[in-house]
Description:
By secondary structure, the protein is of the alpha+beta class. The protein has helices at 18-21, 38-48, 51-59, 63-82, 89-117, 122-132, 157-172, 177-184, 190-193, 207-215, 248-277, 288-307; strands spanning 27-30, 35-37, 138-139, 142-151, 196-200, 226-228, 231-241, 244-245. Helix content is 56%, strand content 13%.
Amino acid sequence: MKRRILHLLLITSVASTAYADQIDNQIVLATPEFNITTRDFHYYVQSSIPEDRREMTLGREGAVRDVYENLYVIKVLGNLGADNKAMDMDEVEWMTKHYRDRLLMNRHLAMEVEAELEKVDWDAAASEEYQANKEQYRMPERVSAAHILVGLDSRSEEEALARAEEVLVKLKGGEDFATLAAEYSDDPSVGVNKGELGFFGPQQMVKPFEDAAFSMTEKDQLSEPVQTQFGYHIIRFNERKEAGLQPFEQVKGRIIDGLKRSMAQQLRSEKINAIKSGAVEFGLQVNSPLLEQLEQKYRLEETSVIER
């Protein structure tokens, strides 16, 4: 490592994706008091970095070393805290057990919910959802277009209009749209899309631009300069898709993802409510007089605070 704990690094062959391959227990950092291992790394990554971001996060230069450094700092300060005579260790122990219970609860619920979800015929469930709510999967009319924007940041409206008209003349003369877009357009995305905007529907573009694009009908048709708050646009019409129902196969994956999320949430709530309601019995006994005293106590304290 570049920092002071460099001398503690014993093993440097840990690949950024090693956590996904196996959980071994090789020592990476060592001190007279404790070791930090590849297993520590694995569990830290599992608990701290979302799965969909791990590869990108750990692939950055120095990221793996930073994780080990974080583990080292946490361990050192944790040991110092354990030796701190002013520390309320009863509270720490309670919080540790509470965190453990919450972790076990969440993982247990996740495993139970996952087992239930595996029983579902998702194709059939998605088809039923699609048939019952077809209007949700209806797409409005859309058009595909490209544009060249002549902005107003560094020029007057008259200068911008003149430059847009110059571009239009070149396009009508047969010059390549993408080439002119790269040369003339002030749209920041032009370097990536060459002016192509893809398909868009109503209310996705500023109104003058939308009105012009939706009024065009012929492929490669060019607009006159269209003024918006961004400047002057030369729009090239590409294609139109009429309003209509999206095919089931096109939206099936999205429907299944939504059903899985909503069903998982519902199952989790049902399992928790079954315990709260006593439908799942664990021999609970309630000290009702004490519970009522506590409720009364906090109601009185709340009332006194409000009155003050």
